[in-house]
Structure formats: C-alpha cells, structure tokens
Design goal:
binds magnesium ion; 11 helices; eight-stranded mixed sheet; alpha/beta; single chain; 2 domains; 312 residues; Spore Coat Polysaccharide Biosynthesis Protein SpsA, Chain A; binds uridine-5'-diphosphate
C-alpha cells in the first residue's frame, strides 16, 4: 500500500473547501485500484473566514483530512513548506484550493511517475486567459529576465501544482532557507521533471490573493533569491563610471595645457548633470546591495517560517 499526500495551502477559501474536496475525491477509485491511499493536508494560512471550521468539519467526516492551522497569515510559501514537512506520502502533490489546478490531471501525473520513472510531474498553463493584460506582460518580462540572470530553470506559466516522489520532496525540504521562492527551488534541485500543459482555468469562487504590487515584490524576492547578477551589475556600473571619469580627466587636463579654458563658468550645467546622474546610479547600486543585505539579515535571524496554532 502506497500513500499519496495532497497539500492544499488555503487563505480565505471558505467557499472552495468542499468543492475542492469533492472534486479531488473523484480520483479516489483510480487510486484505490492502484493500491494508493490518499491523505489530504489543508494548511490554513491565517484565514479570516470559516476556512478552518470547514476543514475541521471535513476532518470529522473523513479521517484522511488533516489541518495545519497557522497563527496568522505567513504566505503561500510557508504553507507549502509546512505541508511538505508534515506529508508522509510516497508521492506528494501541492495544489491550490480554488480548483485552478485541476485534480482531474492527477491520474495522468501519477502514471508519468510510476510508469515512466519521472521524479516529478509539473504543470504549466499555456495561456493567461482571464488575467489583466498588464499583469501578463510584466509576468512574461519577469520570466525572461530571471532566466537570463539565474541558472535555476524557472518556467513561464509554471504553477506550483506538482506531483513529486518522496526523494524529490526530501531534497526540497533540505533547502531550509527563510526566503523561499518555490518556483526556483523546484528547478534548482534538479531531477527529471515531466511538464504537462493545460489551459488556464479561472478561479471558481473567491478572489485572487495576489495584487499587482504583491506580485511585483514576489518577483523581486525571486530575483534576489536565485541570482546575484544585480550585484555584478552594480560593480559593472562602478567600473564604467570610473572609466568615464578617467576619460574626462584626461580631456580636461589636455585641454587646459593646450588651448586652455577662456571662460571659467563654462561646464556648470554639465557638471550638475553628471553629479546627479552619478549619485543616482550610486544610490541605485546601494539599494541593490541593501536588498541582498536585508535578505541575509532575515536568514541569520533564523526565525521560524511559520507558527502552528493547531494541528489535526
Ligand atoms: N494562499 C495562501 N496564502 C496566501 C495567499 C494564497 O495559502 O497568503 C493560497 C490560496 O488560498 C490558494 C493558493 O495559495 O489556494 C493560490 O492563491 P491564489 O489563487 O490567490 O493565486 P493565483 O491563482 O491567483 O495566482
Ligand atoms: Mg488561484
């Protein structure tokens, strides 16, 4: 008998819990036939609605349903990590509660792992139907940029919906960093991954938890977590401006010695331009260094990623 753990991070998903459960359990017969049991771990990420209550309700009806209740909202990354840590399954899958990750794909994903020997089966949506165009545009640019800057493969449109073997899960758990960016971590650990594609499904009920600003900050976190290219860029700026300054100095000295400067006030405007440009670049580079420093600061504090209030 094998065990499949399903991890579902939830934040204010009261209207989706039961629908999700019903939809997932449509796969029950398939897995029973394969001699695979299912355990379901809902991670309640500090919801302010009835999410936890409804999961408890499910737990009373079905003992395969478990709950990890956080003391406040810690973010989806913390929720996934808590779920992965708790999962005992030989196979583990992470999926969203809003049915944007179709549970009907599970049997196919399972077959790739068991019959074809993949270590993980990941999913990506091939379109961004139903998403604001501005958001799609920035998302695409982000994926282009981060893939240029980082050697972890981060795939455009990749969802966190992924079925993994025990070995794959254990390697993910071995990365204990506080600033987690799972899309990068999944790629970083390596192994053989099969990609399945599906068309974007709009959220069933409730609202997305990601505002444009939250996504933007998440993208920055991803870059800082998986690339040191911005630091190198800051150094390149430094070298470039030293070089320019050197050329200016030679130019001014040579001009003074040959033709001279008949009018001392000439050059005031250009001096101001150069000073403000260079100080802008300096602050920008200082900001980049600050970003890395702040992440390092959070890492060395070694705070827990989440705090559990109750577990079922
Ligand atoms: N989620 C979470 N904590 C958060 C934000 C989101 O656990 O702070 C969960 C949410 O309940 C859902 C999943 O993460 O199951 C994906 O969130 P959402 O659907 O809002 O993101 P989108 O699909 O719009 O990218
Ligand atoms: Mg969603």
């Amino acid at each position: 008998m094998k065990l499949l753990s399903v991890i579902v991070p939830c934040y204010n998903e009261q209207d989706n819990i039961f629908d999700f459960y019903d939809e997932l359990m449509k796969n029950e017969a398939f897995f029973k036939e394969k001699d695979v049991e299912i355990e379901l771990i809902f991670v309640n990420d500090g919801s302010k609605d009835e999410t936890a209550k409804r999961v408890r309700n499910l737990h009373d009806r079905d003992e395969r349903v478990h709950l990890i209740d956080f003391s406040r909202n810690f973010g989806k990354e913390a929720g996934m990590y808590a779920g992965l840590k708790r999962a005992k399954g030989d196979y583990v899958v992470v999926m969203d509660c809003d049915l944007q990750d179709p549970p009907a794909l599970l049997p196919e994903m399972y077959k790739y792992i068991v019959d074809e020997g993949y270590d993980s089966v990941a999913t990506r949506r091939v379109d961004r139907k139903g998403e604001p165009p501005i958001r799609s545009f920035f998302a695409r640019q982000f994926y282009k940029l981060i893939n240029k800057m980082s050697n972890a493969e981060i795939i455009d449109g990749a969802r966190d919906y992924r079925l993994m073997t025990r070995q794959f899960v254990d390697s993910i758990l071995s990365l204990e960093e506080y600033n987690r960016f799972s899309k990068g971590i999944f790629g970083w650990v390596g192994f053989n991954t099969k990609w399945l594609e599906f068309e974007n499904i709009e959220r069933k009920k409730g609202e997305t938890k990601w505002s444009f600003w939250k996504l933007f900050l998440y993208a920055l976190d991803g870059i800082v977590a998986f690339s040191t290219a911005p630091l190198a860029m800051a150094s390149v700026f430094g070298v470039l401006f030293c070089f320019l300054a050197f050329i200016f100095i030679i130019f001014i000295v040579v001009r003074q010695l040959t033709v001279g400067d008949p009018n001392n006030t000439v050059g005031w405007a250009s001096t101001i331009c150069i000073i403000s440009l260079v100080s802008g670049v300096q602050l920008f580079c200082l900001g980049i260094v600050g970003q890395y420093l702040s992440k390092a600061y959070l890492e060395v504090k070694k705070r827990p990623m989440y705090i559990v209030k109750e577990e079922l």
